[in-house]
Design brief:
Blueprint: H1 6-23, E1 32-35, E2 40-43, E3 54-57, H2 58-62
Antiparallel strand pairs: 1-2, 1-3
Amino acid sequence: MDRINSRQVIQAARRVLFQSLELGTAGMDPSGVVLSRLHGRLVFDLPVLLPEEQFVPIELIRGRQSRSGPARLRLPRKPSSI
């Protein structure tokens, strides 16, 4: 099973969020950040992820809990063998 360092993932997502805020590209309230190996992007709806992408919910980035419970990282799924 692949393991990730959640602290590094959240830090990378925060960098993407803060860069977007500095550039003024974050007009609406984002739902989170999608990270891949090469870049990250701010998203406003729940994304469909490519196999190498990870979704970090805004609650984890900002450090607050949602009313529905704790947020979790969404990891890429392994391709199923047919």
